[in-house]
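Predict structure. Chain length: 210.
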Amino acid sequence: MKKIAVFVSGGGSNFIAIHRQIIQGNILGKIVMVFSNNPNCGAIKFAEENSIPIFIINAARYPNAHTRDEFLLETCLKAEIDLICLAGFMKMLPQNIVKHYEYRILNIHPGLLPEFGGKGFYGTRVHEAVINTGKRESGATVHFVDEIYDHGPIILQKKVEVMETDTPESLAARVLKLEHELFPEVVKAFCENKIIMENNKPKILEYNEN
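Prediction complete.
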């Protein structure tokens, strides 16, 4: 069973979706800790209600960036974390974490990368950009994390049609529903060792493959 750390800044609906699939026995993993820069976010309340250890990591509590980064890595190593999931985490992960956990950090993005990704493209901003540029498709992407925002190798995407009547809010609602299916699916595959690298690209093995 894989040990999972979740990093989150907001309501944590993707964190909750993954946790629900674990409780139902669909994912062979366990969320053993939650990190957040926001002590007042909904995800922290959910973690408390479900007895998941919480760590608040921000400049107010750890003014020294090097000390903060070292604490993060040491905490993950001590807990023997196998997988890190970024579920709406609004900060860049420290380089020491990204390097140590290469191909073991997953991020969910509310758009079809590589379009509408990178610094500044998050949440409603993504959906506004999709609508404003006249795209007829949007969706969600799960990718491995590297040193650049929304840049790492794409593992899996799912699409939705963009309607002529869509607002950023209505599109966001449909994409979020997709995220709640997509992220647990990729976490499940990771926990079953079904994600491999072929020619530097991730591939999810079919369940009849070795």
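Summary: The radius of gyration is 17 Å.
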